[in-house]
Amino acid sequence: MTALVGNQINVKSLRQQERKEKLVMMGLTIPYLLVVILLIVIPIGWLFGTSFVGPDGSFTFKHYIRLVESKAYYRIFVTTFEISVFTTLICILIGYPLTYFISQLPRRAANLCMIAVLIPFWTSLLVRTYAWLVLLQRKGLLNNFGIESGLFSEPLPLMHNQTGTLIGMVHIMLPFLILPLYANMRAIDADYLKAASSMGANQLRAFWTIFFPLSVPGLLAGSLIVFVICLGFYVTPAVLGGGKVIMVSMKIQSNIELFFSWGAASALGVVLLALTIIILYIASKFVSLDQMSSRG
Amino acid sequence: MGFFNRIVSETQIRLGQRLWLYIVAILILIFLVAPSFIVVPMSFSGSQYLEFPPTNWSTRWYLHYFNSSEWMAATWTSVKVAVMTIFVATPIGTMAAYGMLNSSTKITRLLFVVMISPIMIPLILVAIGVFYFYVKVKMVNSILGLVLAHSLIAMPLVLIIVMSALNNYDMNQEKVARSLGATRLQAFFQITLPQIRFSIISSALIAFLTSFDEVIIALFISGGPNSTITRSMFLSLRDQIDPTIASISTILIVISSGLLIAAQTFGKRKDSD
User: What's the ipTM?
Assistant: First the structure.
């Protein structure tokens, strides 16, 4: 009897100790959380608040109403969507065949190709943007090549417009599409395709009825990630657009640095954030969040 | 044409039938890598103008870079900030990763989302948020401010790398050490840390690179004598193009590929060996 009671006390104190230890372990995340609270939670909360405050300090929807009514803001939203949609579509169009090709190669050759995908991924954004500036300018490599080979007689305006922005953006976004798609395609069992062809499906049919549907989750995840990064992108459109392509992020920047208009900037920011969260939430249904880290 | 009749897939597709895919894929691969490589010959051009391929060669842009006190100051700021970011982001991120994995309660899932939010939210919003906060606490244009902001976006990467290393590590080893009388701290430093050290080194290198490459936050919160090199590069690219950028770009490519190869080798080394 006494032994049993002693045992119970022991269990109880051990439980307490375990709980205490878990608390200590949670405590290890405090410095991290402190930085996030100071530099993310408080500022974003404040931005949210500011977006509802007028110049006289009263509560107002005026910043949001202006987003809807003003022609200039309408134009910016349209541009941002156009660039993001086109970039995503072009990425799908050229990223899918490339990833399919790599996924069908033997391991070693595939790894080599993946290095080619990762090189731009890890080259500084500014360096790549600069390279495109060199390639796309009036007397750049592409225009010279086109004129010398007789493809066109006048240099094409490839830069300081939407075309240049799109080319640069596609180059930067492509790896974000390829990486999740490649992981998905690698995991598709080749036996399914063999089974399909042994039962008489030709290659096209085997691809469209077996392979493609199985690769859709990776494709969807990659596309959503690309789209969401495009929405908030700043550096490349600012340089390659030459001031003619104005996206939401650039308007936020100029509202603050040139016009000191925090109200307008924060309303834009809140809209951008809301869109980002919605799209990331959808994407998180297909891919784990830590695979979606974005840069730029 | 025996060559084109070679079978290239497990479902008996012949090379000839797939040729179009090979050509398309190679063209796209060139599109991906060419811009990173074009910068290197550009940097040795002798011309004032952006021409490719260069008509004459020289190292004048490198000389210009190394002799310019502004570029040197900006480089020094970037290196300082990036090194300090390693020492803030790596310990904080590692601690958090360890804490998260040892306290698997229901809120850790939510905590994880909060913790990686700095790299999920558009950087422009992080930048204006941090800028707002620094205006209030008078930390704009300060080194400390840059280090904290860069740590903010480097910590999630450290967290992800170290968490995945700890996931592959058998935490029972610590229990063994503790049952033999080690304290938790001793168990961590003597048993766990040596086994995940390569992942931690690799995450530190990535923290360095994250800070060193960061543009948008620096655009808002750095300036004057504490401008970072990326900030100066961005302004130069946007406003007037200085060929010095090509030489700096080449140096950046060398640094980042060196660090990545290092990070990869450290990351690949089986941590449990």
Answer: 0.86
